Every structure is written in structure tokens, then in C-alpha cells.
Here is the input.
Amino acid sequence: MNILVIGASRGIGARVVEQALAGGHRVTALVRDPAAMKRTDAQLDVVRGDIRDEGAVDGVMAGQDAVGLAIGCVPSCAAISLFSTGTAHVLAAMQRHGVRKLVCVTGIGAGDSRGHGGFLYDAIIRPVLLRTMYDDKDRQERAIRASDRDWVIARPGFLTNGPLTGIYKVVTDLAGVRAGRVSRADVAHFMLDQMRTMSCRHLTPLITN
Here is the structure.
């Protein structure tokens, strides 16, 4: 596959790049700072650009088979629009270039996963420290769900830097479920699997151990 990864220089996105290259895929990484990319590969194209720049997103979309969207930002009390604005640019470019597959990471506390993080997270961390971020992630999810693309929204539990195990739960019915920990590498594994199979097409699973 030809895969576009946005948010590729660190975290889950960096692990998607690593695993995709190991699997023989061609990867385009759209990053604000190419120097932040920790690896080079003959199958990797690193392109400087910002998801908030519609032209930059459009410029890397042609010829892609799937998009992995794993952007993040520093929490803030101020209004945040990175997720919704950037995703609008991604969806528009996908439409223009006929790219169908989108796998996006949001997080526990987005959409109907709110209330499944445990007392401390649900009562303090999510509403106080992460409120503006998750307000925008909710807008991001709504835009994806309203689109005509083939999409999967992955909502990881509490992220760790643990190893790739390939052993994790994909939970679509959250009744009585509380999120646990999951490694960034395992979330990347799920994303790459969905780019191939779309077995969770139009679903918003919780990814957790």
C-alpha cells in the first residue's frame, strides 16, 4: 500500500511509520519539522507541511491508498481547533483525489467513550485539564462520521511506551467497560491492520489491554 501518515514524527504516528515500512509499504510522512523524523528509508518520503495548511495536505494526497491520522497537541485552556480544522482538510483532499481509507486516532473520552476512563480521569483530568482538546476531538469525530469515506476511529486507552505485542482488545460495546493501558506500538498495529482490512469500518472501537 501507499500510506500517508500525518503526525508521523512521534508517538503513535512514528510507530505506524516504523511498522508500515517493516511490512513493505510505501510511506509518505507529512510533518512540520522533518528533522524530528528519527529514521530514513528508501520507502519513506518525508514532506514538510502542516495539517492546518490545506494546500500542504492536498499536495501529499494523490496516489495514496490509505491515510493514518495521529496528530496531537499540548493541552491548553484556550480553544483548540487543530483536530477539526486539520481533519476537514484531510477529508476534502481525500475526496478530491479519490482516497477512501482513513484510520484516525482520537482517545478515551471522545464521543460516546466519555465516562469510561475511571473516576480520576472522568471527573478531573478529562473535564478540567483536557476539556478544550476533547471538545475539538468531538468535532473531529463528527466530521469523520459525516463523511462518505471508509473510516475507522481508534480510541486508545491510557498510552504507554511498551513494546508491540499484537495482543489487545478491540471493544465496540462499552457497556460496563473501563479503559486500561495500551502501548502506542499496539495502537499502531491496529491502525495498520485497519488500513488493510477495514474490518472495523464505520466503528469507533476502544483499544485497550
